[in-house]
Design a protein that fits this description.
Layout (H helix, E strand, L loop, with lengths): L6 E5 L5 E2 L15 E5 L31 E2 L4 H7 L3 E2 L2 E7 L5 H11 L6 E5 L4 H11 L6 E4 L4 H11 L3 E5 L16 H17 L3 E6 L12 H5 L2 E7 L4 E9 L7 E7 L2 E4 L19 E8 L2 E13 L7 E2 L5 H15 L6 E7 L11 H13 L7 E3 L2 E2 L5 E2 L4 H10 L4 E4 L10 E2 L3 H8 L7
Parallel strand pairs: 6-10, 6-11, 7-8, 7-9, 9-10, 15-19, 17-18, 19-22, 22-23
Antiparallel strand pairs: 1-2, 1-3, 4-5, 11-12, 12-13, 13-14, 15-16, 16-18, 20-21
Length: 453
């Protein structure tokens, strides 16, 4: 007599299993999501059905260092953010707002990647004709790019086993689904299950995986945080108010998270910005308006000159407020408090507005001295002299502390025509033109002219 299959009830949202039907899932809390299904026997399923490779061990000294080599994407800014190129056997998660250019960037990257292997582009959101139209617009022929328009995991794995690609792009991870992970596509369980399966494949076959992800209205990648822990690199694609795009990593096991890639979007796709400082400086004739300072900041290993704009207006309510989206509001408040303490400059009765020209987000501490000078200029109405670049960290005691790579900042500012550099004492041979030790000395150096007093 044929043995009857055991039945279980599985949640279609999170995959939780129960021996009997329940109205509400105890794991995810959703109602009426349990469906009757056959119990999985041991060793079944897509992951368990794979051929198991015996686990071995080797002395570290006997392992070939080339096994962890990188593949150049052919785009310098992309390689910079990745830490030098696409690392083999790695998984990279890239997120950004809809229409920002994630698919365009990856299509350009895989088309120009310096490898003789095949590339598998999985598009579950667009048809083959739509992807071809984008490739034609970008001037990509794509002889070695294989296109697969499906989100079903089992079909994708069969194609991967047949093509043996060296680079795989899954666009997007929210559209992947498997019969083993429930009936509803796009659930948390589906994303984790499908991502783990693809990551396991590239780890075994010496390939690299790109997972495209959508972001929520808060700007973070939608889905579980576990998805970011599963991959090796997490990259965010950001946009300013214009056509400029910023690529930055928040997690990178094979490189720094301080590097930033800068692109512009045009009719021919994304183009690398050769001189980023020109995007963040406003060319003016004559004196600067009050509240404007030029900061020499460091983005990773690259010095940039950015324009800091400050505005102070009398408080309209009971408490003063800080409006700053490109610089941390807490940093602006701390610098303002330092000015009020050590220079007796009253700012507590003012609303503070701070902006960075070009829309770039600055997190480096070297911007603090320039921010302090911009706030002082805005409050007093005294303009900062033109062609002066400023860098330095401002402590709560009013001291100006040294910053990294001061020589590179000075060289970059000189190349862009800035005659004077204001900054802290440095052990480098290239010292600032005006060396200051505290905020009082910095203000005196900038506003010592009797006409400005």
């Amino acid at each position: 007599m044929k043995k009857q299959k055991a039945l279980v009830y599985k949640c279609s949202t999170c995959g939780h299993e129960e021996a009997k039907w329940l109205g509400r899932c105890p794991d995810c809390g959703e109602w009426n999501t349990f469906v009757e299904t056959s119990a999985a026997v041991q060793g079944s399923g897509q992951l368990a059905g794979r051929q198991q490779v015996p686990v071995t061990w080797l002395p570290l000294s006997s392992i070939d260092a080339d096994a962890g080599s990188r593949i150049s994407s052919g785009i310098d800014e992309f390689d910079r953010v990745l830490g030098g190129g696409i690392m083999k056997r790695s998984a990279i998660l890239i997120g950004g707002e809809p229409g920002i250019g994630k698919s365009t960037l990856l299509l350009q990257a895989v088309a120009s990647a310096e490898t003789n292997g095949r590339v598998l582009y999985v598009s579950a959101e667009e048809s083959a004709g739509q992807v071809r139209m984008r490739a034609d617009r970008l001037g990509i022929k794509g002889e070695r790019i294989e296109l697969c328009c499906t989100g079903r995991l089992e079909d994708i794995e069969a194609i991967m086993d047949a093509v043996k690609p060296v680079i795989i792009v899954a666009d997007s991870v929210q559209t992947l689904h498997s019969d083993e992970a429930g009936l509803t596509p796009g659930t948390l369980n589906q994303m984790k299950y499908c991502s783990y399966s693809l990551i396991s494949w590239v780890k075994e076959h010496d390939a690299a995986l790109f997972l495209v992800a959508h972001v929520t209205k808060d700007g973070v990648i939608s889905g579980p945080k576990t998805l970011e822990h599963m991959v090796d690199t997490v990259i965010y694609f950001e946009q300013n108010d214009g056509d400029c795009r910023f690529l930055r990593a928040t997690k990178n096991r094979f490189g720094s998270v301080d590097e930033i890639g800068i692109f512009t979007m045009g009719e021919q796709g994304l183009s690398v910005v050769e001189d980023p400082s020109l995007l963040f400086l406003v060319r003016r004739e004559g004196e600067l308006p009050p509240g404007v300072a030029t900061a020499a900041v460091l983005e990773g290993t690259r010095p940039l000159l950015v324009e800091i704009q400050a505005l102070t207006v009398p408080v309209k309510g009971a408490m003063s407020r800080v409006f700053s989206d490109r610089l941390d509001s807490a940093r602006v408040a701390r610098v303002a408090a330092t000015l009020e303490k050590h220079l007796s400059l009253r700012l507590s009765d003012q609303d503070l507005y701070v902006n960075v020209a070009g829309g770039i987000r600055i997190t480096e501490v070297g911007v603090e001295l320039a921010l302090a000078c911009a706030l002082y200029s805005a409050r007093t109405g005294l303009p900062i002299p033109a062609r002066v670049a400023i860098a330095g960290e401002l402590s709560l005691t009013g001291e100006v502390r040294p910053v990294q790579r001061i020589a590179g900042r000075i060289k970059t500012s000189a190349n862009l025509g800035f005659d004077t550099f204001l900054g802290p004492q440095s052990e480098s041979l290239d010292a600032p033109d005006k060396v200051v030790g505290d905020i009082k000395a910095a203000i005196k150096a900038l506003f010592s002219d009797e006409k400005r007093a």
